[in-house]
Amino acid sequence: MAHTDHAATGSPVSSLTKAPKTEEDLNAFMEDVWTYVSVGRLGLEYRIKEAIHFLAGDQWVRYIPHSQKFAQHTLDEWVPTPTTNYLVKYFDRIVDLFTSGDLVEIVDPATKDQEDVESASAALRMLRAEFLRLKTETELYTPAAGWLLLAGSAVLSATWNGRAGKKIKSPKMTLGKRDVTKDILECKTCGYKEEKLMNQVECPRCGDKMVPAKTTALDMSSGRPIQEKYETQAKDKKGNGVYDEFSVGEVEERVCNILNWYPQPVKRWKDTRYVVETDPMDLDQIRSIWGSKAADVVGEDLEVTEWQGVYNTSIQAYSGLQKERGRDHSMVKFLRHIPDKRWPDGLLLITAGGKVLHKGKLDSCDDKLPYEFIKYREVPGMFWGQSLFSDLIQLQKRVNAIDSHIVQNRKQMVSSQWLVPEGSAISHIDGRSGLIIRWSPSTTAGFKPEKMMGTPVSQQVLNEREQTINDMEEVSGAREILQGGTPPGPETGAAIERLQEQAFRRFKPAIGRWRRGLSDHAKRKLQLIDKYWDEPRMVRTQGENKDTESEYLSKANLQNAEDMEIRVSVGLDFSDSSKRDRITKALGSGLLGDPNSPEVRGKVLSKLGIEGFDSEYILDAKKARRALQAIQKSEPPPEILEVDNHVVQFQIFRDHMMTTEFEGAEPTIKEAIQARAMEHKQFMQQAQMATMQAAEATKGAGPGAEQAVADSGAMGGPVPVQQ
Known about the structure:
Blueprint: H1 23-38, H2 42-55, E1 61-64, E2 69-72, H3 87-99, E3 106-108, H4 114-134, H5 136-151, E4 153-161, E5 167-171, E6 173-179, E7 181-187, E8 193-194, E9 210-216, E10 227-233, E11 243-247, E12 250-255, E13 261-263, E14 274-282, H6 283-290, E15 302-305, E16 309-312, E17 329-337, E18 347-352, E19 355-360, E20 371-375, H7 389-414, E21 417-419, E22 450-452, H8 459-476, H9 493-504, H10 508-532, E23 537-542, E24 548-553, E25 565-567, H11 576-588, H12 598-607, H13 613-632, H14 646-656, H15 660-663, H16 667-697, H17 705-712
Helix pairs in contact: 3-5, 7-8, 12-13, 13-14, 14-16
């Protein structure tokens, strides 16, 4: 398959009649696709690189079109180049807005059936476990929000890495042969054996008792033992068992570098059928990942850049902080294509240095590309989103130009220009105080050197600078209330909160697209879990009080995962009033569980910021769950204490006994669960009895005695109104 220039002839994928098979054809195909998708991106990459320059404070740069590189402005030495980087403030504030709060908030079940509700709860715990393991907030969401503001687009990826995760040893099995045995009766006294008379009790020879035994089965024709194949563990030379080691696999998520991410040139993301990614890697890293397939991969002439790592000089060079790396790196290219008639399972093709490292099915949980493509601002007719910085950079340039003028004017005011007559013999005047200037009146007709006073910066220039900064505040949406300042006038917290919500609405369209992208990304991670978590694994989850818990979870805990609705809340969603409204609505709709449940009431109060209910409700609920899990594993549960909140713990066991999981449990397990629940119920009854007796004893003892009994509560916690 010859390498072809498809810039004018069209996509090398669409012109492909059949899938390439040989390594030569696959490499040629990859290079053709790479060339095709990398054409026409100069404008996009210019905008992104300029934005990164300005955010880093490197703002006196210019773009050289013929070399496609940035360089410092070649200005005269006397021209000041001051930089007051306002972009950093806006960038940090808005990134914080986009990434604040618990980003995985609610998993809605497919239906309100108990199984689906429990499955949704398990899904939420799985996502929180992955959130903790992957450090998603700092390593994914924050840089993704940065790309969103700088480039106008962000790309998240979630795939399954079968090489990652915990290592498990499994006995290496081999096939062996052994003699087949059959059941007989044998007399231990005289040795008589009988196969046919299996019901014979007494030995026909000696009359002694016949006992069951085994003997080797023989082939009737040859008289040789009959043999069967069986699996046995392989042994090494010393006779020790041999084991295979494999990984359980893990979800792998990352933020794609837009500068290294090349989608098919189409008008809309939903029409994209393939994407090429590039990743410059050290040769040692390449060989450690792909093993013998990468043995012949050689290094390439690559350059180090600030943002792309190492990059091919012939395609996307950047002059800024680059330096020669030598030939110890190679550009790894990843081509992903959705399933079609040429690749029924999709395609993942990986090449480097002219070698095919991998060719296999698409590494996705469905038939879609494993990416979430998010735009900051939607522009009709444009594939890429428009960034916030594209509006701010021009205003920042104006501020820099005004500041340059102000600094130059200040220099002129401090070190004024001089008017020196011809023939005065004065060649230089510096700015030292007490300087003596010698001149000859006779040679200058009496004219002496005179200082020419500069003109102060006009108020118009200062007003222009102030107006430009106001324009940046307006364009960015980062007004005083967004920056955390207290607005003049209203002093109540509720009023300030409402003003903040009004300010946040400025970002509502962008946050909406961001929220949908994060929700789709979380859904993709859940689908990967549902597909690959075959065996139970111990995971760490975070509770309501940010405390960490451990439990075993697997895909068996998920039912109807495909139909679950995952909603991620950010920014505006995390204002207190909005949070209260969402919690109240969720409670009323039953999404949080039974409103009469002590556990649910405790969670709601804790979410609303009402202190003291964690110890009263949540901790008892956690203890009940630990006891339930222990019983299910046939392990001793935690001891029941008199100080336990028996109402809460009984409710947990009662709710479990309503599930299909309980119905399908072993009889001994069911009995143990019921016995545990009855113990809590007995404590509740004893507490109620004690309360009634105390109330009876206080009759006539004063108006406050009965109320004191009621306020004291029942033993083991408050007695609910509804049992």
